[in-house]
Amino acid sequence: MKIGILGVGGVGSLIASRLSDTKHKTFCLGSLNSNKHIRKNGISIKSNFYGDKNFFSEDINQKVKLDFLFITVKGTKLEESLENYRDFLKKNTVVISLLNGLDYREIIRNKFNLNLIMGSIGSLEVFLDSNRVAIHKSNKKPTVNIATSESKLKSNIIFINNLLIEIGFNSKIKDNEDSVIWEKLTRLTVISTITSIQDSTIGFALEKSPTKEMIMKLINELCLITSRINQKSDPDEIYKTIKALPYDLKTSMQRDIHINKPSEIDFILKAPLEFGNKLGLELPVMKYCYEILCKKINQKL
Questions:
Q1: Which end of the chain has the least Cβ crowding within 10 Å, N or C?
Q2: Going by DSSP bridges, is the β-strand pair 143-147/115-122 parallel, antiparallel, or unpaired?
Q3: Is the pLDDT of residue 122 over 50?
């Protein structure tokens, strides 16, 4: 199979490195700068769990047609990236989205008319350092949940599930796409929002009583949303999961805001807030946090 990775950041680099040990051909589709770096230096990863590795992916100048495409690009670059690599996609290319937040399904399905498997990836902290080396800090397998509402993709989702297990990930097929999205989003929105407001690790934030209180309020508001769409969420379990995260965990949204890069706040916080408002819910803490962060990054509501 010809498998593409759209977005060669930390997550994309890790997946590509694991796929490089399989019989499949792996094509890394990045920005002009990342493509230039990869052609010259390959992709490097340092992982306490999988070990260190440097490898070269397939030459993307071949302009091949992909069978599968993992999307790991930042949400802010999704449309531009898909447009840039439209020539690599065929009518039956299957896309596996591992993007964080809401509103991606509409872009992928409606604007680009692609076959879609929704996915989420957790138990993972990985990022690129200043030398474009992927630093994988987690000491266990990443956990991936996948689902699709497209019945024609039944064999494809089984293939992807088996492939993820083959490359050393924990993977599970879920009943519906909403469960995949919201199971992660109820955690991710909280930790991304809190670490970005505090500009701290999640462990440090949890030590402060006012912040702990805000965390619980955010969790409760997100659970109000999931209850309206018949997705079960347990606030206490979500808090326990967050509390069990590594003390020094930082989020990509926090890193982007800290260095004044475009962040995924619109997908991770704004979109869930607007979705909840459309359901008729008052979400004062989410609204307050969004306003605080907008001021911090000089955005307007």
A1: C
A2: antiparallel
A3: yes
Helix axes 209-228, 271-278, angle to 10 degrees: 50
> How far apart (Å, rounded) are the C-alpha atoms in residues 134 and 8?
9
Encoded amino acid at 178, one letter: D
The whole-number pLDDT of residue 209 equals 87
| Residue 170 φ/ψ, nearest 5 degrees | -85, 125
The rounded distance, in Å, linking the Cα atoms of 287 and 218 is: 10
**Residue 69 tokens, joined:** 């495409």
pLDDT of residue 87: 95
Residue 89's region, left for phi above 0, alpha for psi from -120 to 50, else beta, is: beta
C-alpha 199/C-alpha 275 separation (Å) is: 26
- The sign one gets for the Cα dihedral 57, 61, 64, 68 is positive
Cβ-contact 61, 28 below 8 angstroms? no
Tokens at 111, concatenated: 């604007």
Domain residue extents for the chain: 2-174, 179-296
Model pLDDT for residues 248-289, shown as the tens digit of each residue: 988 989 989 999 988 999 999 999 999 999 999 999 999 999
Residue indicated by tokens 């807030």: 273
pLDDT at residue 299, rounded to an integer: 54
Class of the CATH-defined domain 179-296: mainly alpha
Distance CA 39, CA 71 (A): 20
Q: What is the pLDDT of residue 301?
A: 38
Q: Name the phi and psi angles at 209, rounded to 5.
A: -55, -45
CATH number 3.40.50.720 given to 2-174? yes
